[in-house]
Amino acid sequence: MEKEIILRINHAKMNFTYVEEQIADYFLKNNPSLPISELATTLCVSPASITRFCKKIGLSNYKELVYLYSEHLKDNSNLNVNNISADLQNSYFKIFSHIDGCFDREKVEKICKYIHEYRFMHIFAQGLSATAAQDFKFRFSRTGKLIEVIHDKVAIEVACQVLQKGDLAFIFTLRGNKHLEKCAEILRNKGVTLIVITGNPNSTLTQNADVVLITANLSGEESTGMISAQIPILIQIDLIHYFYVRKYSEVLEQWVSTEKVFNND
User: Fold this and answer.
1) In this protein, which residues make up the domain named HTH rpiR-type (predicted)?
2) Is the pTM of this model over 0.70?
3) 91 with 223: CB under 8 angstroms?
4) What is the CATH number of the domain that holds 51?
5) For residue 148, what are the contacts with CB-CB under 8 A and spacing of at least 6?
6) 88 lies in a domain?
């Protein structure tokens, strides 16, 4: 995955200038690798423009670009399903390793305790994090919980004003959404119990939550969409659900009974 220079270029494409688009097109068309001076002459651009292009796609210099691009050309000529599978397995392994390294059983059990004590709860999430929130809702609705997933910006602001002390809310955001950070501060000041799952330990969310689970974030090529962005949050949901249905035996029986509904479909 670290060799996927083409993914880096495509990911940064929206922010390219006209000159940078010309440079990008050269590499996207799998043209031969050239020294920076020859490439500059070929494209009628300056070497400085090529260096800025390298910085924009997250590389240190042109030498690094040439290396990754050469690896791409090599891999492209020998591409097979096994290589793709190995790359994906490596990316998944990095995500699981990071989550395992940050695992805090005490926090997970505290979250389970909150879920068990509350019947009603709200989840604030936007983008792909909202998709993960829907999975949380599906799982815990089967244990008798009433959960509302709120993903619209205006609806989130309204809900923040309506919730009161004694209510339970979750915020799911991989990178630390600024709008959700403001909402967390409002909820904290109102005395709402707040649980946060995020991949950004530097977010102000961590200062306003009762419990914070730090999950893996996506970086480099993984952030381009090769790995689904909701996976790090979904894994944390799996952990919470796993502990919850085993800690509370009556919940497990209720959860199993819902299987009959699906088996009748």
Assistant:
1) 3-76
2) no
3) no
4) 1.10.10.10
5) 121, 122, 123, 137, 159
6) no
